[in-house]
Amino acid sequence: MTKRLLGYIALSIAAILLQKFLDNYASVDSISPQLIILVAVYLSLREGQLFGMGSGFLIGFLNDLLVTHFIGYSSLMGVIAGFVAGFFFKESDVELAAKNFNFAWISAITLAVTQLAALPIIASGELNYFYVFLKFTVGTTVYTTVFAMIVVFVNGRKSRYV
Amino acid sequence: MYKWLAEFFGLAKNYIIFALLISLSLFLISTNNNSHTRGLQVVGLVTTSYLEAGVNGVLAYFSLPSEVKKLQLENARLIDRIARIRGAMEENRQLREMLNLRQQSSYPLVPGDVVGRSAEGGRYFITLDIGERNGVGVGDPVVSGTGLVGIVSAVSEDFSLVRTLLDVDSRVAAKFVNTSADGLVVSGSFGELAMKNVSRRYPVQPGDIVETSSLSTLVPPGIPIGMVTEAKNEPGDIFKKIDIQPAVDYTAITTAFVMKYSRPAEAVALEKEQLKKTR
Q1: What are phi and psi of A49, to 5 degrees?
Q2: Domains of chain B by range and CATH?
Q3: Whole-prediction pTM value?
Q4: Nearest to A30 among B37, B43, B119 (CB)
């Protein structure tokens, strides 16, 4: 378990650093893939809802501190992602859930829910809900799901050679 | 009772913890403008900015040849512009002398490179590689060659975090160049800005230039903010609905200048005195 936990910590730190890089160099009209949500989904599918929520909160907090500078926002997204993805957790079917294309569509559903939950926070000021929905909810969900597909594809290729 | 509670917690623990974590996150969000949270932001800023500056340095090395070509072209354009500006400056000096106007004050500028950007949850920040060591302070305005970028919201020794005008919490007092109408520039939809509190009676047209107003306590007047793209009167609203195309491209900006601006001490003292009297 300790070894697995260390692996998860390493994965989370790598995701946060990569997130910073993607925000700077891979964002399209200020939309970038939300790797933190993908990590929270992955951990929730591997370890269950409670672990997913807790780790989602901690990783999100660290992401807020180092990447977004908007303390609390990614934590909220992480908790919701862990909670939603936790409903797809099946102890007997962990590898299947985390490695094949189930991961991509579970991530897409989770992303849509988290981005919808973020609507009232983002749509403050003069921003209208339609614009925020179109740009942040749809944009982020699609862009991040593409990344989830890449993760699944890379994982699938790796496991074929093992 | 204890057994019942334990049973209840066993059944609903995921939901209880979910509610607790959500509440904690919302509490953290609500404290974002507190000084304690700002301290946390500075800690995060220091931790990642060195890494970003390093990555930027490596990337800049590979893009040097194309950058040199671009700068040579820019240099040729600037030489031509300087020649024309010299003539205009001389003409301006003569006209000011004729009108007996006071010389406009200029403020010291501290140049910095953009080493990071973040746009999450409607919050648009950029990170500059200049900080307290260079004389940058919280509340200092940041400008680029084309206009106002934003206001410094947190600062460490070597880096500063700038809240751009696109950020949902950004508010800047502004006015139109060709009318006397004042208003408040806030973030708008589709990458634009919006101007609030402008009365319907002012004739605002697409193409009108918006700049910072002398009513602002943080930013000097006359800095370009953008251009009006749409101005309309909504039924039942006493204010106009105005969309502004920002003068600065926040996604492409690579260099910015922190302006060392402070309002005239006499005006500040007078306002304080008046506030005391009214209390």
Answers
A1: -65, -45
A2: 1-104 (no CATH), 110-261 (2.40.10.340)
A3: 0.69
A4: B119
